[in-house]
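Researcher: Here's a chain I'd like modeled. Treat it as a single chain, no partners, no ligands.
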Amino acid sequence: MINRKPLSRSTFILVICCIAAIGGFLFGYDSGVINGTVDGLQASFNSDSVGTGFNVASMLLGCAVGAFFAGRLADRFGRRTLLIVAAVFFLISAWGSGIADGSMEFVVYRVLGGMAVGAASVMTPAYISEVAPSAYRGRLATIQQVAIIGGLFMAFLSNYVLAWISSSATAELWFGFATWRWMFWMELLPAAVFLVALLFIPESPRYLISSGRESEARRVLGLVIDEDEVDGKFDEINATLTRDHKPRLSDVINHTSGKVHGIVWVGIGLAVFQQLVGINVVFYYGAVLWQSVGFSEGDALLINVISGAVSIGACLVAVALVDRIGRKPLLWVGSVGMAITLACLVYAFSTAAMVDGSLRLSDDMGVFALLAANAYVFCFNVSWGPVMWVMLGEMFPNQMRGSGLAIAGLFQWLANFAITMTFPIMLTSIGLAGAYGFYALCAVLSAFFVMRCINETRGKELEEMSYE
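Model: Modeled as a single isolated chain. Structure tokens:
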């Protein structure tokens, strides 16, 4: 465990939160690296549009499984333990995806990586929320999204540089291996760093209390809060836990009414709407999207890098605002902004003309679409990108945090899978304008969802969270 004596308490908390957030970096990298490998996968595996869609989206099935079971297993074995398992899976998946010789083998490794992404997606915000003080919990939890976008950006940048060196994703790069394989292997280094760093952080004190490890829980609490507050915080956390059993999946049911607690439905709504606005179409298919309206492969990969940089800037704005103005206002403003910018994209794509069998935008409309797309990415990453993870990590009561995150994470990744799998089909059936019209409608609906269903959590202790 890290020795905090040379560090101030706030620095120690920041360090362990940043280590946990490396899981978010790998989440982003593993999600984004596929963007530049689509052409290589098609050429190597001879897949059609449906097969390509499944090769891309297969990871998301693993994400759904990983998110659901990690939330449950973390209540039994601990948040840190599940993050360590995820780190091992990241390593295996990064290596295996690059050596795969066929679609089936590739899908197996991507599903395994997806399980790691799913586990990291729910365990990182859970861990951060459980060790961070309420006064700046939102800012620390937002590190998760900064890390995710940082991972996406590094994947886009790595893909761009490797493709620039070799001339294309399908060309040979080093030691006779195709460039797209090296794109996957670049993930090995951060995955190894994550695994080693996790060995030096403490377990979540709230998990330790729920597991009856009282002395260890008090020691960890002493690392993150003042010593004279430990006993009071210990008693406060303990009072929120059910005495007759450890946290379990059935805690999401109100045993008086027999219905699922309202807060679980709110979590599901947050998780699903974050995907229905279509952001991962930009992240997963950005290169394909821009090539489909006339940009070269190199320009399309460069646009991905620009979008990644915009995303990082937006997340930093969110870090500055989330504990100052709150979660709900950011979500609502983000929904409105996404609805407007997506509508602009619909207009731009509707003007595209067929040239030599392919869509082409005019020069002016290409610039307009590029600006609208980056404005959309900014709106998402200043609001729904980070704030959904902040809220999922803190909105559930202690007794059901693992189960609530498991269910919300499952729905989040299933929605992600549905959106990702259907985009190539929508592209060939209703076109880009039709696809983005659907995402714009979902952004409008998300604004009404925020107004009616979301309660502000800014400044509240985790022990104050309600079941409804």
